[in-house]
Amino acid sequence: MHTVMRDEAGQPGEGAGARRAAGELEAGVLAVLQAAGRPLSPGEVRDRVGGGLAYTTVVTILSRLYAKGVLQRRKAGRAYVYAPVADEPGLAARRMARVLDGEADREAVLARFVSGLSGTDEELLRRMLGDPPGPAGGG
Amino acid sequence: MHWAVYFPLVIPLLAAASAGPLAGRLPPVAATWLLAGSAVALAAASSAVLGLLALTALVRIPLVGAAGKMSEQVLSRGDPASVPVAVAAGVLLAAAAAGACRAAWRWTAALLASGRQARRLPGAGQVVVTDDEAADAYTLPGWPCRIVVTAGMMRALSHPERQVLLAHERAHASAFHYLFTTAARLAAAANPLLRPVAAAVGYTVERWADERAAAAAGDRQLAARAIARAALASAAAPARPASHAGALGAVTGPARMRRAGPVPRRVAALLGPPPRPRRLLLSAAVLLVAATGAAALEAVRDLDGLFDLARAAGVS
Fold it and tell me: The complex's ipTM?
């Protein structure tokens, strides 16, 4: 997401770079809406995407995603609130996860962000984070 | 054919023993290229010399020797490999070939399935967020690769930490890390001695993506924290929110880290200084692999010379 971060720092790219940045912003906004679990107003989206995006930029991205059929919207007060269309990405991804779960080599082809932790690993990580030690939910 | 023929069979043992330390000491990009490349080269070299040894048994079957017009006397005198050794080599080679074919078939099927699914995922962007409560995030290899993050993982991380996660997964996708891991695993399927090397490649591609994400964020501490929090979240034991501010690290000695799993080691690596080039170590490792390849070639030439001699003796 470094392209987005560059934009946030106020150095928008040009040409292909700008197109790519726009695509990444759209992906970020879509991700926020998918994670929200309820329709969001442009202001709420801007707050959750973070990084000081202009309100008008967020509205432009939302309108573009709406025009692409990725988002649905309805009037709430003076503004629109937006939500992903029928959570299709979620459905498809769950279906995919089921399909891949059935295959023995799923783990081998997926590049996981974090692999499994042993009990010692968990304790180590907690200490690195400065968490009080103890089992999950212990404090 | 002397020691040269056995050299490529011994070096994988050394590679297996040194893969872990190399993965921890070399910069991740160099380590990934070195380890994946070595795995493939060593698997090829060890299979080649197994083939040579098996061949020496084959030509001593009178019918085969006669068909090649070779002198049996010259063959048995000039060849150091006893018949049992050669037969054992033949059996091992057959097992290696079967293992590699089976693994190649399975990996291809898994990669194709993953690519199909990655293509089928809707949405305009590379990133797909599922509404799954369990915290998880992964890259699906494909054309193009897609990044799947669950809502549970999104919620477990702060916004800057999410940026790290996405930068990490994007690095996997854009640098085709699955090709490195697949190549190393295929090599390990052909020569099981190389399994630790394949495991080390799995670790170095994670480190590669970690360093890319840390560079994109411009903050190694942040990257380390993102990984630690994500790991605890996916272990269904999320870090308590109070842990946000404190500085990481300085709680573990090297002795404890040595026994730690890959995730704490990744976090510790990010908390340390950026990796140094270590050209000497890298050159030494590359030289050793090159020497192994040369030894295999030498063994081929040696056997070829022996066969020429046997053929000359067989004709006269």
Answer: 0.72
